[in-house]
Write a structure and sequence with these properties.
The protein has 125 residues and is mainly α. 76% of the residues lie in helices and 0% in strands. It has 7 helices and no strands. Helix 3 packs antiparallel against helix 5.
């Protein structure tokens, strides 16, 4: 039996248009709040990791003979990517430790932001 059916059986009146509007507004606000509760730094970690994997894939697809021919700037771009990849790796290692990343993306993303937890505790919510 659905919740609405139980309410009808219990004799509860149908919600007014205003109540329906308020319930819809509450739902939207709850969704917005959920976005603020997410820890953006955790999402940044996983996006950076995906970017790094794309760089590795691009580097694997390069032909060294073509790169060294000098006809294109491919060699210089590859060297630049390698430097950026090293910086990204260092950043990922630091973030993994600081954010206590478990490598379970869904679980990590479900954790609430420490900022939001602290804000709620400070205000006794």
């Amino acid at each position: 039996m659905a919740f609405d059916d139980i309410k009808k059986e219990a004799g509860e009146p149908e919600p007014t248009e205003r109540e329906k509007h308020l319930l819809q507004k509450i739902s939207v606000l709850e969704q917005r709040l959920a976005e603020y509760e997410k820890d953006g730094s955790v999402g940044f970690y996983y996006e950076t990791n995906r970017m790094l994997n794309k760089i590795v894939k691009a580097m694997r697809n390069r032909n060294m003979d073509d790169m060294l021919s000098g006809e294109t700037k491919e060699f210089e771009r590859t060297i630049a990517m390698m430097k950026q990849a090293k910086e990204a790796i260092d950043s990922l290692r630091d973030l993994r430790e600081r954010l206590d990343i478990s490598n379970d993306e869904q679980a990590d993303l479900q954790r609430k932001s420490k900022f939001m937890k602290n804000l709620a505790e400070d205000r006794n919510y």
